[in-house]
Amino acid sequence: MAWTISALFLLAVISCSKDEPAEQSASGGQIFFTSEQAGLTVKSALIGNSDFVADAGSTLKTTLHENATWWTAVTDKTGIYSTEARTATGAGGTLGIVNFEYIADNTAASTPFTATVPMFWGVAETIHNFYAYYPYNVNAPVPQPAAATVPVGLISTQSQLIANDFTHIGALDFLVATPLAVISPANTDQTSHTYVHLVYNHLFTVLEFNIAGTGTIGGIRLTGTDLALAGAVIDIKQVTPAPGVAYTLADQGSKATAVIVNLATAATLTATATDTKVYMVIYPGYAGPCDIEFLNGGNWKSLVSKQAPAGGFVRGQKYVVTVNAGAIL
To answer: What's the number of domains the chain is made of?
Structure first.
């Protein structure tokens, strides 16, 4: 995904409307999708001797483009479910779609997605429910996981190429579409339909560390509680939480107390904090003290303590914290 650093992402799903473009298909009855991402919110708050700033109005996701998150053509893939759709047109095929792969057509904020294996409308003029998540799990177990048990995780050791680069964020992202109910066409075999439009919401939180000091750093470590996630499961059929409120996990899995971002190329610090930026993705909710350390010569040094925002880090939010690392020797 492409990121535009501005605000945390929150996606809402919008049903078919007369404003949606019509799709022509040689295969009657096929269901077509477009998707967008909800924006991310960035705020600013003084935390101890640091600034945790959330810059309002930004969006997170695959690729960042000037405060908005974009899908990335070809590489961004989403998994879609529907209990009422079929694997073939008319009354053919099997009823019920489980984790069908759809691929972004364009690099854009909103784009059509093309099916690896298409799905089709079921019974005419009936409600069809759609559920989706990102990124598509190419290693999903067989049989495919149900919509109530989609695996989700966030690694505790992350990698950034160089200072100020945020291209790694998209690979760490996880989105869930707002559940959408659409009434199928009167003629389910017709070759022209409006798109089903899905809006995706972010599960995680982004931190931007602006680091002042002297010397070089090869990484940063944040220590708190429940900051990363492994082996968890989410029910993507759940009602989308209010903005900022965390999704409920069907299985909590295990959570890590620390998250590390390693720099592939060490950064040389200056007196200007914005010269050196490191980006980290964390699981939301932690509200306690934060210990921040810097990697130099294979050792963690210059511990700086900060306090997380009151009420905890918020889902779909990007925070900026300015840290003075001092002399890293």
So the answer is: 1
